[in-house]
């Protein structure tokens, strides 16, 4: 059984950058954001259920889900949001489990932005948190997404606090500084994880 390392961090912490550094070591990456898109891809049961519930207006002309329309629909309707979460969360979890089963690297990385909030670390053997201070998160996200600082602060408020994530972590990567430091932290953890895999009963 492949060892599963959960990777999480708040918005703007650099999860993708860290995941890509692990991918350079040929480690399989299972990304919840990608899985979430796959379970509502054209032809999927997820998309059919959403279309049955909300009508074909929820689709783009190419048959894909109109995400901005869906966001607008659930924004003003909590019961719809709960219905959608109830539909998609089990599908996402099931697909992530299937992807973990198919991983061929010594360990795999399960990247979930809201891992701690949704208690998904139960799916992992260890939890790796990418940690940055709030100022850095705000600066990076405003720059990356072209949004204002207030919007980023409201997203931060809706996520687990920095301390809650650190309390749940087995391993921590500090990403306040430059890329060279990040690479060396990933290199060290990669070696640690490989050593742990060798100790695991096969």
UniProtKB/TrEMBL annotation:
CDD domains, A to Z: DPCK
One of the GO BP terms on file: coenzyme A biosynthetic process
Location(s), subcellular: Cytoplasm
Enzyme Commission (EC) number: 2.7.1.24
EC class of the enzyme, as a word: transferase
Location, primary (coarse class): cytoplasm
Molecular function terms, GO-annotated: ATP binding; dephospho-CoA kinase activity
Record-linked InterPro entries: Depp_CoAkinase (IPR001977), P-loop_NTPase (IPR027417)
PROSITE patterns in UniProt: DPCK (PS51219)
Sorted UniProt keywords: ATP-binding, Coenzyme A biosynthesis, Cytoplasm, Kinase, Nucleotide-binding, Transferase
Gene3D superfamilies, alphabetized: P-loop containing nucleotide triphosphate hydrolases
Biological pathway: Cofactor biosynthesis; coenzyme A biosynthesis; CoA from (R)-pantothenate: step 5/5
Keyword Cytoplasm: yes
HAMAP family in the cross-refs: Dephospho_CoA_kinase
Physiological role: Catalyzes the phosphorylation of the 3'-hydroxyl group of dephosphocoenzyme A to form coenzyme A.
Family assignment from sequence similarity: Belongs to the CoaE family.
Descriptive protein name: Dephospho-CoA kinase
Organism this protein belongs to: Photobacterium sanctipauli
Gene: coaE
């Amino acid at each position: 059984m492949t060892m599963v390392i959960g990777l999480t961090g708040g918005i703007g912490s650099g999860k993708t950058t860290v995941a890509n550094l692990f991918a350079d070591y040929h480690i399989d990456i299972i990304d919840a954001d990608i899985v979430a898109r796959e379970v509502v891809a054209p032809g999927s049961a997820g998309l059919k259920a959403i279309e049955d519930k909300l009508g074909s207006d929820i689709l783009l002309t190419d048959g894909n889900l109109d995400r901005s329309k869906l966001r607008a629909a659930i924004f003003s309707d909590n019961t719809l949001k709960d219905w959608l979460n109830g539909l998609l969360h089990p599908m996402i979890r099931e697909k992530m489990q299937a992807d973990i089963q198919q991983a061929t690297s010594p360990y795999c990385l399960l990247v979930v932005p809201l891992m701690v909030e949704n208690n998904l670390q139960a799916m992992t053997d260890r939890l790796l948190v990418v940690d940055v201070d709030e100022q850095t998160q705000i600066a990076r996200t405003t720059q990356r997404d072209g949004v204002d600082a207030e919007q980023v602060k409201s997203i931060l408020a809706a996520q687990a606090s920095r301390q809650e994530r650190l309390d749940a972590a087995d391993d921590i990567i500090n990403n306040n500084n430059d890329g060279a430091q990040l690479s060396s932290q990933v290199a060290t953890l990669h070696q640690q994880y490989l050593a742990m895999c060798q100790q695991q009963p096969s």
